[in-house]
Model the fold of this input.
Amino acid sequence: MAGMDQGIAPRAVTQGQGRLSARLEQYGLPRAAIEVLLSRHTLVRYPKGASLFGKGSPADVVFAVMSGMIKIFCSAGPDRILIDLAGPGDLAGYADFSEIGGARSQIFEAEALTATCVALFTRDHILRVLRGLESGSLLAVTESINSLWASMVYRCAGFLAMPLRARLESVLVDLARRFGANDARGVMLTPELGQESLAEMIGGSRPMVSRLLMEMTQEGLIVRDGRRYILLRAKWPGMESAGALPASNALPPLAAARNGRQLDGKPRGASARASA
Done:
């Protein structure tokens, strides 16, 4: 594999490449084009906590996670919001904006949650592959990209109307669906996310997340195992095994009908502001 670095586990990279290939095929990219795309890349390792790219840095490459996990942030003044996690087979660094003069720059920033190996693909190489597609394949890829962005906008818009409890439940379900591991009690979240990271994901404070997690533990929804959380199967509708959960925006919040109250404890009809 091009760019193979000593110390990078070949098996982990192969698994990441397999997941990336499957994802690109789902996007409508023909297998021949995928092989050409994957033939030219550079593998780079990042230690835990290292910055992969920052807001405003040149957006001349796209990052594909081969092993490990990264956090993607959106800076909002002095604060930043953790908008997504990317694991093996996921892409990052493809969202950019155009500077005055036409130069393209990263709109988000990324940091290694764990020791991570990523494959770097130049945008020039990606564009050459796309230019070589037949019109039908190019249309399929375009439709997939449109659906991807539409789902992200839908999820963000839904978050604005959710109280913090519902946001946290949605985030936990999404993490279980994407990064969960089967456990006798339910689904274990493999990322080791502290309360600060969860607070960044739902736009809340660390004390609020601590209170919500305590509530959910007392209600028998989750249990903590070391530094990881387990979603208890008996309490989450639709949960059978890791990877078998429905999309988080399709799963009704657990406590929506509890005692006729909203997830933040307010009576139905009351404002469901996230700050409550």
In short: The chain has two domains: 10-134, 162-260.
